[in-house]
Amino acid sequence: MEKLLELKNVHVSFNTYGGEVKAVRGVNLQLDKGESLAIVGESGSGKSVTSKAVMRLLPAKTSKIKEGQILFEGKDLVKASNREMEKIRGAEISMIFQDPMTSLNPTMTVGKQIMEGLRKHQNMSKGEAKERAINLLKLVGIPNPEVRVQEYPHQFSGGMRQRVVIAIALACNPKLLIADEPTTALDVTIQAQILDLMRDLQEKTGTAIILITHDLGVVANLAQRVAVMYGGTIVETGTVDEIFYKPKHPYTWGLLASMPKLHAESKELLAIPGTPPDLLNPPKGCPFAARCPYAMEVCVEHMPEAYDVSTSHKAACWLLDERAPKVEPPEEALV
Ligand code: SF4
Ligand code: MG
Hints:
Its main location: membrane. Pfam families: ABC_tran, oligo_HPY. By secondary structure, the chain is an alpha/beta fold. The chain has a domain at 244-335. The protein has twelve helices and twelve strands. It has helices at 47-55, 82-88, 100-103, 110-122, 126-139, 145-148, 158-170, 188-205, 219-222, 240-245, 250-257, 297-301, and strands spanning 3-16, 19-32, 36-40, 63-72, 75-76, 93-96, 176-180, 208-213, 225-230, 233-239, 307-310, 313-315. The strands form two sheets. It has an eight-stranded mixed sheet, with helices on both faces. It has a four-stranded antiparallel sheet with strand order 2-1-4-5, with helices on one face. β9 (225-230) and β10 (233-239) form a beta hairpin. α4 crosses α5 (126-139) and α5 crosses α7. It is globular and about 65 Å long. The model has no long low-confidence stretch (mean pLDDT 93). Bound molecules: iron/sulfur cluster and magnesium ion (MG). Residues 249-250, 286, 288-289, 292, 294-296, 299, 304, 317-319 line the site of iron/sulfur cluster. Magnesium ion binds at residues 43, 48.
């Protein structure tokens, strides 16, 4: 497979009154063309910051990519000029956010909003752009596209609005679509429909997808690979099967245990006790050590390296060192 995106040792910090918040600390990630990757973690784990770094959408005054490379088709986006990024955004990489209302302009018809990118990036005539807008609305499953292309965002339901946002994001056939919690604001049945639509579109268009979510449940249907983030670092990456059936990191075990089970007798969810690390003063060792039931002395003192479990599976945990005691995942983590 051909590589599309590669993050190498990316560090992102925010300047706050309290000091430097080290939100992303040494992230390494890879994505092939047409592949779908889910980045999973609780809020504050660094997943949104990582994706905003790729889009270079971090606030310029208060944040900084301190170190590392973000290679998109070999080109380092960390070093790209604002002008180059403007060309890439929307045309090569597009992003959709949780709340469709914030990304839509309430004063403009949805048709005009889809046409904007086409006119800007692809030099289409008005007529061509309008035709493409109607086709895109059809593609994302909006009935009556010839009529609805003239309507305003408030005339659409929440789910239909998110479909419009997806149509805008796909308008210029981007190579990469980053979706940050795209279904969190929607109710459960609509969520499933939007995820089905995204999977469908990915098959049809070949666009690579990065899905950012706190919910492992939505991952299985859409992603091929998963990266689990904690405390600004990636603690485990693998194929969906590896993460669900052979998880190695105690934090991933905790996430799996906190997932609602289809056939479980008790409906009680097991939350992971404790709170995430303070990234103003990040721990020098494993970020999960303070909450990990298996923590050893070495964990507090030294950051574990990412151990290879298979060619596609890595986990950053001292338990994978050959000198560590053998520990099996708890029963609640078994899917
Ligand atoms: Fe737990 Fe240590 Fe593994 Fe961190 S490195 S997850 S503290 S066992
Ligand atoms: Mg977020």
